[in-house]
Specification:
Strand content: 5-15%
Number of helices: 8
Structural class: alpha/beta
CATH topology: Rossmann fold
Order of helices and strands: HEHEHEHEHEHEHHE
CATH superfamily: NAD(P)-binding Rossmann-like Domain
Oligomer: single chain
Number of domains: 1
Strand order of the largest sheet: 3-2-1-4-5-6-7
CATH architecture: 3-Layer(aba) Sandwich
Bound molecules: NADP nicotinamide-adenine-dinucleotide phosphate
Number of strands: 7
Helix content: 40-55%
Largest sheet: 7 strands, parallel
């Protein structure tokens, strides 16, 4: 008899009833994942710095029957992260999933880039991710039930590009942060992975969809034949949060339409 548990297989993608904390929840990607999780019955705590946007999402999602809440804060400020994590546990009783979707890109040649701009990318992309993982890890370890951390990286983490000294470096750090955290937290059954998208539609990238030269240049390197949409990543974010990915940790998973070259 093959050791395949029918009950496990039938339920391994199910997220219903889990509690997720999502940073950058006001962004294109974070809000899509929040809604996608919410539709699957996940209880979603959304956090970001912009209260008006959080409130609007909260109203939109609750009108759709999604169980969600929000708390304002900056993931790169340690006191904020401590408060956000504490508030999530207070509101929902536990945290099973962390998604770090907060991030920023300020492309510019190193010859023009200010050290402040470079530091702001390191703070938002690296320090913010580190602090969120650190505080959620403590909660997950105390709960003793394992957990899933889904860190948003980028295809740029593996491929430098003109103007991307700050962003690529920060996302490469996120990739190795996930690998190292996975080593720290594996014994607690906490899985830590990144998914690494190429360009998808957001406020920052909308112009690329309207500049034919830029779009066509990307298409040459995209076997899938189009750039991404935020909803394209709900699948990988759900898989990495589910029992179906229990044996996957320390991975940097390309979610990039087969993107190749620079
Ligand atoms: N769009 C792409 O093509 C693409 C490709 C690969 C990877 N990514 C990554 O995907 C993630 C989400 O990107 P997105 O395209 O959805 O961007 P977005 O729509 O601009 O959202 C960015 C999110 O991060 C927060 N944020 C922005 N600047 C921040 C800062 N300095 N400190 C802390 N939080 C900040 C924003 O919330 P508040 O301003 O309300 O705090 C917002 O929720 C980022 O990590 C990005 O690097 C994007």
């Amino acid at each position: 008899m093959l050791a395949v548990d029918k009950n496990f297989v039938l339920n391994m993608f199910g997220l219903k009833g889990k509690v997720a904390l999502i940073t950058g929840a006001t962004g294109s990607l974070g809000s899509a994942i929040a809604k996608g999780y919410g539709y699957q019955g996940v209880k979603v705590m959304m956090t970001a710095r912009n209260e008006a946007k959080l409130k609007a999402l909260y109203e939109e999602f609750t009108a759709e029957g999604i169980d969600c809440a929000y708390i304002v804060g900056d993931p790169a400020v340690e006191a904020d992260v401590a408060r956000i994590v504490e508030a999530t546990v207070k509101h929902y009783g536990e945290i099973n999933i962390l998604v770090t979707a907060a991030g920023v890109s300020k492309p510019k040649s190193i010859l023009q880039q200010s050290t402040e701009d470079w530091q702001s990318m390191m703070d938002a992309n690296v320090l913010g991710t580190y602090l969120s993982c650190k505080y959620v890890a403590k909660v997950m370890v105390e709960q003793g039930k394992g957990g899933k951390m889904v860190l948003v990286s980028s295809a740029r983490s593996k491929r430098g590009m003109k103007g991307y000294t700050g962003y690529s470096t920060s996302k490469a750090a996120v990739d190795l942060l996930a690998q190292s955290l996975a080593c720290d937290l594996g014994e607690y059954h906490i899985n830590v992975n990144t998914f690494n998208p190429t360009v998808f539609r957001s406020d920052l990238t909308e112009w690329m969809f309207h500049d034919d030269n830029v779009y066509q240049n990307f298409l040459k390197r995209l076997p899938i034949g189009r750039l991404g949409e935020p909803a394209d990543f709900i699948g990988i974010a759900s898989f990495l949060a589910s029992d179906a990915s229990n044996f996957i940790t320390a991975a940097n998973i390309a979610a990039d339409g087969g993107y190749w070259g620079n």
